[in-house]
Model the fold of this input.
Amino acid sequence: MYPAKADLHFSLFSDESLYLEQVQRCMFWSQPSFHGVDLRALNQRALEETFAQPVVDTWHPGVLVSDSVKWSFDFGKDAVARLHKIDVPFELVVTRTCILHGLASWFDVCFDGSM
Done:
């Protein structure tokens, strides 16, 4: 077995273009007459549903607006039970004035190789 380690990272982010892209996805529901049907009553619910979903994508590190918090796991030493519930206490401080859009997370995996 090759030793492997994983780090989960969490940081606050601000990304206006991603925000606008998500809002644009909901614009369909703001139509006052879609084949004679007023869809505007569903617009708020569409926004709530869209922003409740995680966004899985790549992003530029420049959107990060706080230091990251790291949670580490060593597959060679740590018990599997530690993965059953991952609890990461954190306190993040925004490093610049911006509109905060969310919490970014990513992971690093290191395969150390063999002897």
Remarks:
- The helical segments are 16-25, 43-52.
